[in-house]
């Protein structure tokens, strides 16, 4: 592999007071991160903001200017604290109304007599957005510009991501190999730094852990889009680790 | 309670490629969020950035200008990818050297002959910072200006937070009560909005869940620093929920 590789990048925006209060523990960031890595999209940044319009608008506009895609989670339900759709419309400067396509989707799940004002909130979609189908509970997400708006409930978010993924521009997948060093981080930090400097097209991360014998150990994660460069760096890391006395 | 309440706010900055690649699932955000809520500090924003100096510097400077405190996690180990301390020094425009106090702490855990250049990296502390002791593995965190720099390993981060907490300015704790609505979100969205509008000094969040009978249900979380206003809003929410037919 050689030449310029097109990088496809992403940011995540998690919207919700319940994450910031600690009441709900986020499970979407790690899931989306792993998913994007798997399809060759580089997740570059995550932000978590409260249910406050100005905060959402500011974060969406900052992230969409920087990355190929922005994925948001949360705030698209039927209650007064669900202000994501209106905030996204404001960020893009477009009107927002009940979308007939979204309304029809809701009616697959909700009886016409139950389609009250609160539930119709879930059909409010910024003008110009494409819908993201929700196979779980019908109320759709949407895609406007480079921003993809998804539910906060993990099962629904995951189903929406499956709907969106085939339409995303994807990059060359980052290849990754993990070398178990059988050594303490502090014993390999010096030689590892030299290897990192000699292999500028790979990134090497060092992650300490306690191994099955209760001893401090290190996983060295080598990452690159180029298989040959990856292999060269991995060989250097393996040789280095093998030369460090275990203790 | 009446009059102005001093608000103490915070941001979290998670530093690490491994979180953005999905290889490591963050467990610190939720822990810190709950901890801060418990001592009356409002967590307002979280960001996750990669191990890139410019990204760390930019995020630290954005967050420290906005909030009373900024808590960072990750990037203070002995390897080349641990660049948090240097990035924080750059953000504050101060020099960074091996700190004799931090070196002494390391020597409580590490034999003098093992204190190589890599391990001494963990004693590099920006000028003017106070140290945050690390009861687990000695290598300290630090506190400079309003920024508190902690380890990424959850057990160590948690021990550092316990060291720091008694020195933090804390606010009046937010009181919270959860009302189980025994109703679908879409059935309560309308009346709940009216209650939220009538009680501007409380925030009301609605969180759907599937209950033990497999039926869609909703938890309504009412939050306020004022116990009387909280009680009034909770009473209104309970009365509303009781009036919605269960189905």
How would you describe this protein?
The structure is a homodimer of 247-residue chains. Chain A is 37% helix and 26% strand. By secondary structure, chain A is an alpha/beta fold. The first copy, chain A, has two domains: 9-167, MoaB/Mog-like domain (Molybdenum Cofactor Biosythetic Enzyme, Chain A); 175-243, Alpha-Beta Plaits (2-Layer Sandwich), CATH 3.30.70. In chain A, strands 2-1-3-8-7-6 form a six-stranded mixed β-sheet, sandwiched between helices. In chain A, a hairpin with a 2-residue loop joins strand 7 and strand 8 (147-150). In chain A, helix 3 (53-66) packs across helix 4 (84-92) and helix 8 (185-198) runs antiparallel to helix 9 (227-243). The longest helix of chain A has 17 residues, at 227-243. At the A-B interface, helix 1, helix 2, strand 2, helix 6 and helix 8 of A face helix 1, helix 2, strand 2, helix 6 and helix 8 of B.
Topology:
Two copies of one chain form a homodimer.
Chain A: E1 9-15, H1 17-20, H2 28-38, E2 42-49, H3 53-66, E3 69-73, H4 84-92, E4 96-98, H5 100-106, H6 117-120, E5 124-126, E6 130-134, E7 138-144, E8 147-150, H7 154-164, E9 175-180, H8 185-198, E10 203-210, E11 216-224, H9 227-243
Parallel strand pairs in A: 1-2, 1-3, 3-8
Antiparallel strand pairs in A: 4-5, 6-7, 7-8, 9-11, 10-11
